[in-house]
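Practice problem. Given the sequence and the SMILES for pyridoxal-5'-phosphate, write out the predicted structure.
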Amino acid sequence: MSELIFEKHSRNDASWLPSLEMPEAALLGQIPQTHRRKMAPAIPSLSELDVVRHFTNLSKKNFSVDSHFYPLGSCTMKYNPKSLDAIAGLAGFSQIHPYQDEADAQGALRVLFEMQAFLSEITGMAEFTLQPAAGAHGELCGLLIVGAYHRSKKEKKTKVLIPDSAHGTNPATAALCGYEVVQVRTSAKGHVDVADLKAKLGDDVACFMMTNPNTLGLFEEDILEIARAVHAVDGLVYYDGANMNALLGICRPGDMGFDIVHLNLHKTFAVPHGSGGPGSGPVGVRKELIGFLPSPRILKKDGGFFFEKNAPQSIGKLRSFYGNFGAIIRSYAYIRALGREGLEAVSENAILNANYLKTRLKEIFDVPYDGFCMHEFVLSARRQKMKGVKALDIAKRLLDYGVHAPTVYFPLIVEEAMMIEPTETESKETLDEFVRVLFQIQKEIDEEPQKVLDAPSTTPVSRIDEVRAAREPNLRFRR
Ligand SMILES: *Cc1c(COP(=O)(O)O)cnc(C)c1O
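Answer key:
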């Protein structure tokens, strides 16, 4: 079967179908001779049915939240209700033009303004910008604000401290912004080693970037002390809130002493993601930092909404227009639909599901940093590795059982890491089935490990050479 639609041609004679095309003459008159094609485009000629089958069959070769359990830690692959897509598709949202006059876009501006207020309330921050297009973009926004803040105080700061368990985008962003990255150790219990942090704090420290719960899924109980220590050297405390799934309605980074936060709407709230689809990484700040936020900000005056363009201290515009509007609309509708109690239930169920799974899986896997976990937890396959089967092999074997692999080999401080995040949207039956599958794979490891080492055997491609794919990408298609 051809995999590329360009390799397909329909032999059907469709001449009896009504023509859908514009009359040629009408178009030709509009396009100057120099801009016209010299050759017909290499577009395959197919019927609608052929096209539908082609893409439906392609989609079935993939794993998605709509088709499979997807416990990818740190990514929060939760189910996003389809009703939110329908809301984002309403003409008032989807047909509006970003160059439209403020006066004609009051409804859209109101939604953006209210969203800023919702996020401020949820996180305990003073003000939000919705411009950043994803989490890493939010981090960039946050660290630019850190730089602007210290410049405004004529302070020279060169270092950003980051725990060794951090998401890779944290050190990448700090380095991109010109800071020296200094790693802070994790304690034996899986928390920021406060003594190590304090030893590394000095007047040259601009910021401490933190994730709480951290990437081991554990809540940082010393957070108040940590924030005080960083503030004592006039450093700012940055909250990587990509996954705030465990804290909604329960506690707030603003109350913990964080100065700047970013949220991933596509993880914590409701925007379908994966495959690089549009995300949204709003950034919130405490009161003293509002002036540095990207411009324009959306403000309210006399019952109307407008863009504040006079912002002398602002780090400037971060993205075209005001952010990924469709992503923001989906999360706005999600927050409104759930309300305060609903959001709290999201977090309670995310925590319950994670702890249930961890407790059951502890029977066969090591948990190097074991404690009451938040929305996710990290297993180690080091016991399995002694039998010759690694975390990667188990991840691949899961595909044969119709489960997307968890995140593996992250966080870096856990040997043979398997990071599992079930999310609140999964039923107990699905979690039990996942446990059954992992016990089955454990049995295979004990009795016939080759099955696991050869996996996956039921997918369209088996193991691919990921290094070669990255180093020698072949981006051509055959005509
Ligand atoms: C996903 C994630 C990020 C980066 O977010 P993107 O939207 O992928 O740029 C940053 N930190 C943590 C903890 C994450 O899980």
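Check your answer against the key. Residues 134 and 279 are 5 Å apart (CA to CA).
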